[in-house]
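Field log, afternoon session.

UNIT: design team B
ACTIVITY: writing a sequence onto a fixed backbone
BACKBONE:
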């Protein structure tokens, strides 16, 4: 058998290599221009409510990046599995023109301004849901599981969802401090907490290793509040947070900006309370002026010595109402080395006996006890938001591990919850009126109803309204159309 003789291929010259490279670059530029045209055409076909939400965010990006970002956001609503970039591109199919790597780079390498995006997104949401009056906020943190040897910013955090009084569960992942807007919709009894700003908590070991000043979750919440007040200098805010954020530092911040910020949280039964310092008489003193007045009894002592308590009917957790007994007191909260903070504290006793006794405080000494209780119990809606972000937006299914990806993807998924609520509030009646999940005794619209209605609306008004798809979809019988839509947009 004769052997096969392999003749060596002639090597191209430098001139030929340059020409081949020039042709390749010309072809790539041609494909990129075509992808940009297709991106612009697909973006122009988005429904008007979606354009009204996403178009104000454009200055935070370059135009092709903005169009790709919007496509990924819409795909994250439409997809049913994990929120990885590959899965989102599978859902979009031909609606995502260009090379897949251009979509992967949006969160890992492409330069854009997250804080500018957050500012414009917050301004759009506030102009729709809180155009005037006091803005009610809720702050809390949640742990999103994200194991892996090289995941940026991960740590071992206590999981409050799986932990009990006798057992503490820990998870490897990220702890996010979230500041959410409390909105009351006409189709719900309870208020919804729409995430606006997020900050990643890093452990002390990681901060020490990177030479960065360590910030606790209350300090991160303080930073988010300062940013929000700087962005909207003419608005007034009321923020409520749970007992982990009942710090003198946050109360001091609200006292410093008392005309613009009120802070409400749990209080301590043995809090260190004093009277205001006596006025300084005379211009020259031989001693340092006093910083606090006479010592006041602790809240638990006042409650113990108050036999007759005020009875109130207040809004409670989950949108219900409760009969409670309250004891109210005023004082100045003192901490060594820090200034006095005037507060009003409220002791709450549930007359039904199903909830433990609690102490709350507010930095507004004139706020009624009923308003303090109802504002704090409304904070619980942010816990519902965390659970629904995990269940319906698959917060813990992302696979990015680099610094940029971690700091961009998870906040965008939290913001997607607000996007779904915004779009559902703007839906036409024929789409919003579809009840997809029903059970006996259900009266309100839940987030599962909202995201399913938004998915059906996007499929019908965007995907199936494209000229190449409209004819095929209209040929289907009405019953078959509903079967297809229920398959594409299930309730879970």
């Amino acid at each position: 058998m004769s052997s096969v003789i392999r003749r060596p291929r002639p090597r191209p010259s430098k001139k030929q290599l340059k020409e081949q490279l020039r042709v390749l670059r010309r072809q790539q530029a041609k494909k990129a221009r075509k992808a940009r045209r297709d991106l612009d055409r697909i973006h122009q076909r988005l429904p008007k409510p979606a354009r009204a939400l996403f178009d104000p965010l454009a200055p935070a990006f370059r135009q092709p990046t903005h169009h790709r970002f919007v496509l990924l956001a819409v795909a994250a609503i439409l997809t049913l599995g994990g929120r990885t970039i590959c899965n989102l591109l599978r859902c979009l199919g031909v609606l995502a023109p260009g090379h897949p790597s251009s979509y992967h780079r949006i969160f890992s390498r492409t330069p854009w301004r997250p804080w500018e995006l957050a500012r414009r997104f917050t301004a759009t949401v506030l102009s729709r849901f809180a155009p005037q009056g006091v803005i009610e906020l809720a702050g809390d943190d949640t742990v999103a599981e994200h194991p892996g040897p090289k995941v940026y910013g991960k740590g071992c955090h206590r999981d409050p969802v799986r932990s009990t009084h006798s057992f503490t569960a820990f998870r490897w992942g990220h702890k996010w401090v979230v500041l959410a807007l409390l909105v009351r919709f006409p189709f719900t009894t309870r208020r919804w907490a729409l995430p606006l700003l997020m900050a990643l908590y890093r452990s002390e070991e990681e901060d020490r290793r990177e030479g960065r000043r360590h910030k606790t979750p209350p300090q991160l919440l303080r930073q988010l509040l300062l940013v929000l007040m700087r962005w909207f200098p003419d608005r007034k805010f009321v923020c409520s947070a749970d007992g982990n954020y009942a710090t003198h530092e946050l109360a001091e911040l609200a006292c410093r900006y008392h005309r613009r910020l009120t802070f409400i949280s749990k209080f301590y039964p043995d809090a260190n309370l004093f009277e205001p310092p006596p006025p300084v008489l005379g211009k020259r003193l031989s001693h340092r002026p006093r910083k606090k007045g006479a010592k006041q009894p602790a809240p638990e002592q006042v409650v113990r010595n108050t036999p007759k308590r005020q009875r109130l009917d207040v809004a409670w957790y989950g949108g219900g109402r409760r009969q409670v007994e309250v004891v109210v007191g005023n004082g100045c909260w003192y901490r060594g080395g820090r200034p006095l903070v005037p507060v009003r504290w409220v002791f709450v006793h549930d007359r039904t006996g199903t909830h433990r006794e609690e102490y709350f405080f507010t930095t507004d000494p004139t706020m009624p006890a009923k308003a303090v209780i109802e504002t704090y119990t409304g904070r619980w809606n942010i816990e519902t938001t965390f659970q629904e972000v995990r269940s319906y937006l698959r917060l813990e299914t992302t696979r990015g591990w680099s610094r940029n990806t971690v700091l961009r993807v998870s906040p965008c998924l939290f913001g997607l919850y607000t996007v779904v609520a915004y779009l559902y509030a703007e839906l036409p009646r024929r789409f919003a009126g579809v009840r997809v999940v029903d059970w006996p005794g259900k009266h309100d619209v839940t987030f599962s109803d909202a995201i399913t209605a938004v998915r059906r609306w996007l499929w019908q008004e965007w995907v199936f309204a494209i000229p190449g798809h409209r004819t095929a979809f209209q040929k289907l019988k009405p019953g078959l159309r509903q079967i297809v839509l229920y398959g594409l947009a299930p309730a879970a």
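LOG NOTE: The longest helix spans residues 14-44.
NEXT ACTIVITY: expression trials, pending approval
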